[in-house]
Amino acid sequence: EMEKEIAEQLMKAIAHNSPRLQVLTDVKVAGVTGQVGQLAVRYQIGEEAATYNCDLLLVATGKRPDTSGLNLAAAGVTLGERAAIATDATGRSNVPHIYAVGDVIGGYMLAHTASQQGRVAAANLLGHNSVRYDAAKDCGVTFTRPQCAFVGLSLEQAKAAGIGAVEVKVPMSIDAKAMMTGETDGLIKMVADKVSHRIVGVHFLADHADTLVGEAVLMVSAGLTLEQVAEAIHPHPTQTELFGEMARRLLSRLRRSVKAGG
Prior knowledge:
The protein is of the alpha+beta class. 32% of the residues lie in helices and 21% in strands. It is built from 8 helices and 8 strands, in the order αβββααββαβαββααα. The strands form 2 sheets. It has a 5-stranded antiparallel beta sheet, sandwiched between helices. The chain has a 3-stranded antiparallel beta sheet with strand order 1-2-3, with no helix packed on it. A hairpin with a 5-residue loop joins β7 (187-193) and β8 (199-206). The two termini are 31 Å apart.
């Protein structure tokens, strides 16, 4: 999911780049009246009631599992939060011969997530029992401008999972390619285990984050270490150079901490 600082910086970027665009969060819509071309949206924000007049209204409030037509109770299948089918990492439900993948099991409701879960379930049904889906290695992209992307865990998520994690962040403004193209808004954050130096998460607010995240997916999926990424040679001038820069900065900080007894 979108890391907290990334979300905050995105809001600032939107306010700066699109001053006419109004973004309101924690709003409860009370009702909509009128017709296309002349709509009135009544909403509550905190204790204040307000109305917004507009031409069109797009409802994109997210998704939730719909298992209502599956008659799962008759099959004895257990449901979890929000009526999602409860499964293990192989996609198997509490009924051994019933597997489920995709939106009906909750979690990340993304096309690539469902595809991987489907491959995992099929592999296990065929007897390849070592194949697992790991949400801690999943990824996503939000196609804003600049784009947001993530793979793996945030610092807070890593610590909650019992990992002694540390992070490093660099602004896009230090990257030569970003300076050349004028795409200097945003930052990248890298999260790693301070003991093993394994990279467990990378978070982006950057133009072209949708392509940058691919390399980070390989880092997290393969369990690469800071040393491995720091020693990799990235071409100049490209935004991928920032991966090596972050790895070297975090390694330097961890080594200084060890010398200082921390």
